[in-house]
Design brief:
single chain; alpha+beta; 9-stranded mixed beta sheet; 7-stranded mixed beta sheet; 16 helices; 28 strands; about 30% helix; about 25% strand; globular
Length: about 600
């Protein structure tokens, strides 16, 4: 259903209870009067972080209530479960599609829902349907004129929308997926800022003589970063933290970082862990604030073309709703906040041939729409080939963090290619070796000594295969069984003395007993480059002059990071420049 929505429900997480693995029903023994046997039925399926259990209540002809016990990631998996529950109850149908960015949690929900329907005597396959489609006439119900049209409802887009609306501007916010948040809930660390109230009250921060100038120095380690953007970030970051804290109720704490990737200590990191991670906490807070504005939010709305007047001013954007209707939204200013382009394999290969075989761990449908629209009206782009990668993205599962991997996989696993052969010393440094494989595929193989709760969840969900021998595992991974067996045997013989003569991996250990394996690739993780903007978030043309009416903020932009992203400044980029954009545009359109 593509209806007008306020933003609150898409990001507020459902209450989480402990996972339940039992299946039971309190059902009537009477003959059913309709298509279901009335009662409450429990059904469980494997989610990303463990079991997802649904308690589904039926009357004779409808589903009347659904509650869930799960340990899915707050703001991602829980949001998907909430959205699917809403669709199911509104449409009395099994949703046909998963929620973008939460495929595993969505699939667990759908599997459990179908099981519960079967228990109640229904036919789940006959109930599969997309959300109730709006008629084409409903397109006329969209609010299509506003002071500001914002494309993309991640951190930058939502922050700009709240800021501009609170400043008195009318705002339409368009989101390609079915939910707000973009990639922000997946941010694994904190947010960088300088001289916020919480930092100035922290003796560690003040005794280090940390300041906005120090944050600028940290950012300008990368000589390719544009100083005007770094200055704008540092000078506005503290106000953004104060806004999030004072107005939105976010509780921050300082978190001094000794990151080996940075030659100096990062005194500027802040964490907000109320809802789990900083990314999720901040996303939820801004979504709640958005719900209390007059912003018109339309989800499942894919923007694809900008509109210009005879003088070249950008005056609107054309988008397609989920019923195939093209809708033109007209505004005094257009803000692009569409994120990176990890899910556009063609564009990845064009701008960064090294990543032609990369996958992505991005959870939003990031296909570069804003970037391509801006280029079509003459915007300058910079540093498009500067893309940070993540070493292990499992097929169907997503990013596999080091704490989930067997011993970090340098010692406790081997990695083979499509030919079932080792090709490099195992470790996070083998990114280029994996990318150089014909299709960018790799397979991690380890034994039961490396099992942990995270790996067990992946096994239960079918993302890691288990077998008694290398030959059996090869069949499950679609590898040549003789070759994989020979590879494992040769490795065990080689490292029996603790030395990996073939590739020089230190501390190598033999593989014994049951074996486990999964397919993975290198993920395009963060995009430093993009549309060039100035410190007011105006989009610049090839001569670096502003394109009238066009603005951009967040990961869709380039110039701020240069060729290196300081950890914590990716999420900071989105909130700070989203805030600058909302404030600047609201002032200009008045």
């Amino acid at each position: 259903m593509n209806t007008f929505r306020k933003a609150a429900s898409a990001l507020l997480a459902m209450a989480m209870l402990s996972a339940c693995g039992t299946s039971s029903a309190a059902a009537s023994t009477a003959e059913p009067a309709g298509k279901f046997t009335p009662g409450t039925y429990d059904a469980t399926a494997a989610g990303r972080n463990g079991d997802v259990t649904l308690h589904v209540t039926f009357d004779a002809n409808s589903i009347t209530d659904i509650t869930s016990d799960n340990a899915e990631t707050d703001g991602i998996g829980t949001t998907a479960i909430e959205e699917l529950t809403k669709q199911t109850l509104e449409n009395q149908a099994v949703p046909a599609d998963t929620v973008s960015g939460a495929t595993i949690s969505s699939n667990a929900y759908l599997e459990a829902l179908k099981d519960a329907i079967t228990q109640a005597g229904g036919d789940p396959e006959s109930m599969v349907s997309s959300a109730a489609a709006a008629s084409t006439e409903e397109a006329a119900d969209y609010v299509t004129d506003a002071d500001i049209i914002i494309v993309g409802a991640g951190a930058a887009g939502m922050t700009a929308a709240v800021t501009a609306s609170n400043a008195g501007a009318s705002v339409v916010l368009l989101e390609k997926s079915g939910k707000t948040g973009g990639n922000t809930p997946a941010a694994a660390n904190g947010i960088n800022a300088a001289d916020s109230e919480v930092q100035l009250a922290d003796e560690t921060y003040t005794s280090a003589n940390a300041s906005a100038a120090g944050l600028e120095e940290l950012q300008l380690q990368n000589e390719e970063a544009r100083e005007n953007l770094v200055d704008a970030f540092a000078e506005n970051s503290g106000e953004v933290i104060n806004w999030l804290s004072d107005d939105l109720g976010v509780e921050f704490e300082t978190d001094i970082q000794e990151d080996p990737r940075n030659p100096v200590t990062n005194y500027y990191m802040l964490q907000a862990r109320k809802d789990g991670s900083t990314g999720i906490t901040l996303t939820n807070a801004v979504a709640k604030a958005l719900a209390n504005t007059d912003v018109n939010l339309y989800t499942n709305m894919t923007a694809h073309d900008l509109v210009q007047d005879e003088n070249g001013k950008v005056t609107g954007v054309v988008a397609t709703d989920d019923n195939g209707n093209d809708v033109t939204f007209t505004g005094k200013a257009i803000l692009l906040a569409t994120g990176g382009f990890g899910k556009n394999q063609k564009l990845l290969a064009e701008v960064a041939p090294r990543l032609a075989n990369a996958t992505t761990d991005e959870i939003a449908p990031t296909t570069g729409d804003g970037l391509l629209m801006a280029e079509a009206v003459g915007a300058k782009t910079v540093d498009l080939d500067q893309i940070q990668t993540f070493p292990v993205v499992a097929e169907g599962y997503g990013m596999v963090t080091p704490n989930k991997l067997p011993g970090g996989f340098q010692v406790d696993a081997i990695v083979v290619n499509d030919n079932a052969e080792r090709f490099a010393p195992e470790g996070f440094e083998m990114v280029d070796a994996v990318l150089s494989q014909p299709d960018g595929n790799a397979y991690m193989i380890f034994d039961e000594g490396a099992l942990n709760d995270d790996i067990q969840n992946m096994i239960d969900g079918g993302y890691i295969q288990e077998a008694g021998t290398a030959e059996e595992l090869a069949v499950k991974l679609n590898l040549d069984h003789d070759t994989l067996q020979n590879t494992v045997d040769a490795y065990n013989e080689d490292v029996a003395d603790g030395t990996d003569d073939a590739f020089g991996k230190e501390g190598a250990q033999t593989l014994e007993g049951n074996l486990y394996g999964f397919k993975y690739g290198v993920g395009a993780h963060y995009f430093m480059g993009g549309i060039l903007i100035n410190e007011n978030t105006q989009v610049l043309d090839e001569n670096e002059n502003p394109i009238p009416g066009l603005y951009a903020a967040g990961e869709v932009t380039g110039g701020f990071h240069g060729t290196q992203r300081i950890d914590g400044s990716g999420i900071g980029d989105s909130f700070v420049f989203g805030r600058i954009a909302g404030r600047t545009i609201a002032e200009n359109v008045k």
